[in-house]
Amino acid sequence: MSLIHVEGLSVSYGARMVLSDVSLRIEPNEIVTIVGPNGSGKTSLLRAIIGAVKPLAGSIVHASNLKIGYVPQKLHIDETLPITVSRFLRLPGGLADVDYALKQAGVPELEKEQLSQLSGGQFQRVLLARALIGKPDLLLLDEATQGLDQRGSASFYQQIETVRKATGCAILMISHELHVVMSASDRVICLNGHVCCEGAPAAVASAPEYRALFGTGTGGALALYRHEHDHDHGDHCHNQDAE
Amino acid sequence: MFDDFMVRAALAGIGLAFASAPLGCFVVWRRMAYFGDATAHAAILGVALSLAFSMSIFVGTVVVALLMALVVSVLSEKGYAMDTLLGVLAHSALAFGLVAVSFLSGIRIDLMAYLFGDILAVSRGDLSVIWGGAALVVSLIGWRWSGLLTSTLNADLAYANGINPKREQLVLTIALAITVAVAIKVVGVLLIAAMLIIPAAAARPMSRTPEGMAIAAGLIGMLSTIIGLQAAYVLDTPAGPSIVCVTAITFIFTSFLKLLGHRR
Q1: Which of residues 114-173 of A touch B (CB under 8 A)?
Q2: Cα dihedral across residues B92, B96, B102, B104: positive or negative
Q3: Confidence band, pLDDT 50/70/90 cuts, at residue A216
Q4: A50, B139, B213, B225: which one has the fewest Cβ atoms less than 10 Å from its Cβ?
Q5: Alpha-carbon distance B48 to B66, whole Å?
Q6: For B156, which of A50, A81, A83 is closest by C-beta distance?
Q7: What pTM was estimated for this model as a whole?
Q8: Residue of B nearest to A13 (CA)
Q9: Which domains does chain B possess?
Q10: What is d(CA B4, CA A232) in angstroms, rounded to the nearest whole number?
């Protein structure tokens, strides 16, 4: 049975429709990535799944006892709020396996640090640890590598893959880094207010709807690439997929 | 021992410090300082209405402070610029309150007592109201502590944990209204925000966890009350403002210590 079944979901902020008639399912143990231009409703979709925005129409059905771990897009910790990593991880549950979660996230040494003193990369790992601490069945990542450099985000996504292997959780993530999307996802959903197209990475990359959004250049998948190095890498992957 | 007015005053101040410590921490963390001000200033309108309708002042101020806090909460969600909105509401509530008081020609009231508190005139009845209110505030915040803290960190994280941040905000709003009503007798409407913010701010440099900060703020508030009252007695200064002065000096002291710590 699906972990999450979204059916005909519409979301609006005031008069502005951000999502209309979106349907999707997330199955156990798969990695699904949502791509789409800015303002295409990616974050709204995740926020609707966690219950932070009320749908205008449609339904979101969670599997019974589904545990969700959520890594928000950005999190500002006010300088006036003193809090250690371990206290942060134990919110709001109280009893929790802090060691386990930090190890899973690859930062076992941060337990006693103040949250406001962490670097960007460390902070994202701690957010990941917090999402993992409840042993979730589904992990939601909203551009979790924003603000990290190439190496930082590559190692972050490696960690995600490790986490999936270790815990067997499914992952639904938003990413702008299309080379990651194309290599690490089982399925890609291309979103622009509605679901433009979805399927295996290679299939989506060659879909006309996707090309319309991201350009037709080198197979569409590469339209957002900024670095020559990644360009080659992604191109290579894509050609392999296409063959 | 309750016969001594100084003992009653100290107990009243300690009661307020007890309630305002955890609440004040949230006011600081959530950047609600001005929000506290607006709620407190509205309380003077509550005093006028209570006198006009011969209600208990505690009930009148709780109701008006709560209404004010709710109005601010709702309007801020509608996307008004927060500092402007609070500036308008806080000061107009105070002005309307002062004007309303002047209409009460039949009743002689000491306005200064409500603006700056009259801690030396605290009666046994006042004490039970203050401690009842303080106990209510502390148990309310203690009960919701984890949820409040999670929603303060990030609203979406709270939702993902099944916590409704709007409900938690309401809890804080109610606690704030009760604290305002409790504090009127102790420091008066103009200095309530000081008792919320200054002990919490003074506790910040020496705290590593949120809980530690709340406890430290409580201790600072209580100690400041006792020292401030003694100082007021010896120097013949107004008691409420003297207490606030001691908290402010503590703030300077802990900030300075932190600075020295960084130097090393």
Answers
A1: 114, 130, 140
A2: negative
A3: low
A4: B139
A5: 16
A6: A50
A7: 0.85
A8: B78
A9: 5-191 (1.10.3470.10)
A10: 84
Tell me the residue type at B247.
T
User: Is this prediction's ipTM beyond 0.85?
Assistant: no
What is the C-alpha radius of gyration for chain B, rounded to an integer number of angstroms? 18
Q: Which strand ranges, in their side-by-side order, compose the sheet holding A170-174?
A: A68-71, A138-142, A170-174, A31-35, A187-191, A195-199
Cα nearest neighbour of B213 on chain A: A82
Residue B210 preceded by cis peptide, ω within 30: no
Report CB contact under 8 Å: A84, B208.
yes
Instruction: Tell me whether residue A179 is exposed, middle or buried, using C-beta atoms within 10 angstroms of its C-beta: 0 to 12, 13 to 18, 19 or more.
Output: buried
Rounded alpha-carbon distances, angstroms, from residue A69 to A72, A132, A170, A172, B260:
10, 6, 10, 10, 41
B114 contacts: CB under 8 Å, gap ≥ 6 = B44, B47, B184, B188, B189
β-bridge partners, A4: A26, A62
Do residues A214 and A197 lie in contact, with contact meaning Cβ atoms separated by under 8 Å? no
Strand ranges in A14-90 using DSSP code E only, listed in sequence order: 16-26, 31-35, 57-62, 68-71
CA distance A116 to A106: 19
Task: Quickly tell me which residue has 């509608």 as its tokens.
Answer: B78
Taking each helix axis from N to C terminus, what angle separates B165-187 and B192-203, rounded to the nearest 10 degrees? 110
Q: Is A141 helix (H, G, I), strand (E, B) or coil?
A: strand
